[in-house]
Each structure stands twice: as structure tokens, then as C-alpha cells.
């Protein structure tokens, strides 16, 4: 049986009831306390956290962008190089695991708040369910885009909804003005990314060569397409990331292909490997976008809801302006 070790530090961080078995009674509300409904579960934060743990990079970068490195007891699951502006702060935060930390690793860090933007972080073989953490007096936040139950999730990604998540975290940590400043900076960048509306169709090519995975309805690519005045070539697909096929892609003949640059190292992950494949594949080599070299490369991480998503908008907007000349 897997043992769970709870340190004295975590016991001190827990609410009234210490390390006793069973649910910990909620502390009395204070001026600094925050209550939210997060992905269908009540989230009570008695005071601004001082020992937060982030379970993957998107959550980490939101925290660091809010200037909260000194409130972090640990981070994990770095998928891409950290944004250069955030690197000095990131280097001060302990890394708990290369991927997701175990329940034991999370508890040894003595957190008073846990945050992730992916449901998988709260799997039983990772940090454990949010409800279990709540029983230990540790509030755990999950991005509204990735709730455990689909009915509780924000079904369609929008920048306004992403800003709502930033506001939640800023409120929890008692730094609402920093949240508003970060949101204004993101909004200003988005304003600079817009282009006049057109009928330009964009194929968002995420990964795979044998089976291409493309952007469907409701994700970041859909939101960016609308923002930059274009349309998602597979916006009629019900899934956010459907498995496509080259014959259907050729039939739709997109005007521009947005290529995700992934750092995983698998088949068709890097942007260049995708472009090389499109140029060699007999079905795709004659596409208008391929023949004319109308490719826009964006970091794969910017296609997930995060503070990086604004970069996808900027890159695609710049690409469309260049191709229009």
C-alpha cells in the first residue's frame, strides 16, 4: 500500500483540525478570505497563500506573471523553455518533479494552495483528486477550461474567460491590481494582433503525419481565428482537436497553414518536420498554401489556454498582414 507522508509544515498550514482524520472544518471567514466555485467544487481560501504548488507550466507562468514566485513552494511539468522574462523568477522555485509530482511529493512541499490547468494533474497517480486535498485543508484550483466533469467546464475558449482565470488567481493571492495590469497588457497585445476581417481560411496543424490532428471548434485556435479576422478551416468540427485526414484537408484547401512547433520530439512534432512533410506528400504538395509557402509557425504551447495564447494571435496576425501584401 502506498504510504502518504504529511510533514509538520503541512500540518501547520492546514485549517483548524490539524492532521486529524476526516474533513477539516472550514475556518472562519476573514477579510482576506476568498470563496469561489471552481469546476463545480467550492473553493475556500482562508488567507492569501504563502506556499503554493503549481502542477504544470501554464499555471506556473500565470503565477510568475503575477509576481508570485516568493509565494511558491514548488512547480513541476515544464513542457517548453520558460518564457525568458520569467526565467529568473522561475529559477528560484523548487522543481518537485520532471512530470507530475506524486501525492507524497506534493505533501512534503507543505502547500497551502495547489493550482493546475489540466485535469490530469489531479489523477490518483499524480497529486490526487482536489476533493482529497480539500479534506487536508489544501484548496486546489483547476482551470475552468479543463474541469473533471465536462458539464462544469467553460466549453468554448475565449480570451475573456482566460482573463477570468487570471482574476481568480490574483484574487486568491490578494493581488487584484496585478491581475488587472497583466490583463491590460494582454489586451493591448491582442489589439495589436487584429487585422481587417477577411475570408482567409486557416488550417491549424497541431501534430501527426499519418493521422494529422487539427484544430476544431471551441479552442484557442478558434478564438484566435476570429480575433485576427479569419476563419478556422475546421471550425465545423465538434471536437477541439479532431483527427483529420489529408484528403479532406486537400478538399478544403486552406489559404494559410498555421503550424505548431512542439518540443516533444515525436513524429510530426517540430514545425519544420510538418512543413517538410506537407511539401513531399503528393496529396498536400499542391495545396495553395503549401505551393505559395503560406505557413505561420507558432509554439505548440500557445495553442492551449495560457498567457502564451496571445503570442499565437500576434504571430498569426503578423503572418496574415505579410501574406496580404
TrEMBL record:
Pfam families: Peripla_BP_2. The keyword Signal applies. Residues 51-325 form the Fe/B12 periplasmic-binding domain. Keywords: Signal. Residues 1-20 form the signal peptide. Transmembrane segments: none annotated. InterPro entries: ABC_Transporter_SBP (IPR050902), ABC_transptr_periplasmic_BD (IPR002491). It comes from the Bacteria. Belongs to the bacterial solute-binding protein 8 family. This is Iron complex transport system substrate-binding protein. It comes from Asanoa ishikariensis.
Amino acid at each position: 500500500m502506498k504510504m502518504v507522508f504529511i510533514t509538520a509544515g503541512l500540518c501547520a498550514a492546514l485549517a483548524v483540525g490539524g492532521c486529524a482524520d476526516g474533513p477539516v472544518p472550514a475556518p472562519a471567514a476573514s477579510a482576506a478570505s476568498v470563496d469561489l466555485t471552481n469546476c463545480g467544487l467550492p473553493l475556500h481560501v482562508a488567507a492569501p497563500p504563502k506556499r503554493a504548488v503549481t502542477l504544470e507550466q501554464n499555471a506556473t507562468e500565470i503565477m510568475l506573471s503575477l509576481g508570485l514566485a516568493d509565494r511558491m513552494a514548488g512547480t513541476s511539468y515544464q513542457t517548453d523553455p520558460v518564457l525568458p522574462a520569467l526565467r529568473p523568477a522561475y529559477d528560484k522555485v523548487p522543481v518537485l518533479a520532471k512530470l507530475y509530482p506524486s501525492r507524497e511529493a506534493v505533501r512534503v512541499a507543505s502547500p497551502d494552495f495547489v493550482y493546475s490547468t489540466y485535469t490530469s494533474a489531479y489523477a490518483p497517480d499524480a497529486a490526487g483528486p482536489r476533493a482529497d486535498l480539500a479534506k487536508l485543508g489544501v484548496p486546489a484550483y483547476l482551470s475552468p477550461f479543463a474541469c473533471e466533469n465536462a458539464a462544469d467546464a467553460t466549453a468554448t475558449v475565449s480570451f475573456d474567460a482566460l482573463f477570468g482565470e487570471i482574476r481568480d488567481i490574483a484574487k486568491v493571492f490578494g493581488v487584484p491590481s496585478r491581475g488587472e495590469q497583466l490583463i491590460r497588457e494582454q489586451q493591448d497585445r491582442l489589439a495589436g494582433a487584429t487585422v481587417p476581417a477577411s475570408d482567409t481560411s486557416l488550417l491549424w496543424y497541431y501534430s501527426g503525419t499519418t493521422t494529422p490532428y487539427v484544430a476544431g471548434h471551441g479552442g484557442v485556435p478558434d478564438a484566435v481565428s476570429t480575433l485576427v479576422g479569419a476563419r478556422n478551416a475546421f471550425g465545423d468540427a465538434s471536437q477541439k482537436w479532431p483527427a483529420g485526414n489529408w484528403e479532406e484537408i486537400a478538399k478544403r484547401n486552406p489559404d494559410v497553414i498555421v503550424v505548431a512547433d512542439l518540443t516533444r520530439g515525436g513524429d510530426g512534432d517540430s514545425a519544420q518536420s510538418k512543413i517538410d512533410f506537407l511539401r513531399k506528400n503528393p496529396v498536400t504538395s499542391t495545396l495553395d498554401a503549401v505551393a505559395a509557402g503560406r505557413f505561420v509557425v507558432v509554439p505548440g504551447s500557445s495553442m492551449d489556454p495560457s498567457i502564451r495564447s496571445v503570442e499565437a494571435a500576434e504571430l498569426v496576425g503578423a503572418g496574415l498582414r505579410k501574406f496580404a501584401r
